[in-house]
Amino acid sequence: MQKHCQECGTKLIAKELENEGQIPFCSHCEQFRFPSFNTAVSLIVVNQSNHKVLLIQQYGRPRKILVAGYVSKGESLEETALRELKEETCLTGLSISFNKSQFFEPSNTLMCNFTVFVKDDGGFQANHEIDAYDWYSPEEARQNNFPHSLAASFLNYYLDRKNW
C-alpha cells in the first residue's frame, strides 16, 4: 500500500470503499488513492528475413534479455514498443502483436510483452543502453535468454505457441 498521498503528502489510511475493499485514503484531500505502479513493454524482436530473435545485454550485466522500456505519459503500449525499438536499435517495426502481461514485483511494474517483426537487421545500430547483442534462432534464443527471468517467461510463452 502507498504510504503517503501523491498530491499533498498526508499519510494515507486504509478505508473501506464499497465493492472495492480496503483502499488507501487521504483524509486531507478526502480522496481514495488507488495503488499506482509503473508500466513497461518488453519486445520479442523477430527478423522477418531469417526468423531470428534479438537478445541484448545492458548496463554491464552479462545476462541476455529482451528489448524493454517504460511507457511515457500519453503513449499507448504499442507506441511505446515501437519507440523503444527505434531508440535502442534504429529498427522500424513492420507489425506488432500483444503476447501477454505480468506484474513484476521487484520494480513495481506491469510488464506488457509484444512481438515486433522487423524486415531484416540492416540499419541496426545499438544505442548507449545496449552493451552487446546477437540474433538467435528460436531455440538458441530460448537457451541463451536469462534463465528464470520475466524475459525468459515471455519468450518461452511466445515460442511454445508458434510453429517455427
UniProtKB/TrEMBL annotation:
Pfam families: NUDIX. Keywords: Hydrolase, Magnesium, Metal-binding, NAD. It catalyses: a 5'-end NAD(+)-phospho-ribonucleoside in mRNA + H2O = a 5'-end phospho-adenosine-phospho-ribonucleoside in mRNA + beta-nicotinamide D-ribonucleotide + 2 H(+). CDD domains: NUDIX_NADH_pyrophosphatase_Nudt13 (cd03429). One of its GO terms (biological process) is NAD+ catabolic process. Residues 36-158 form the Nudix hydrolase domain. Gene3D superfamilies: Nucleoside Triphosphate Pyrophosphohydrolase. One of its GO terms (molecular function) is NADH pyrophosphatase activity. Its cofactor is Mg(2+); Zn(2+). GO terms for cellular component: cytosol. Its EC number is 3.6.1.22. Belongs to the Nudix hydrolase family. NudC subfamily. This is NAD(+) diphosphatase. It comes from Streptococcus pseudoporcinus. The gene is nudC.
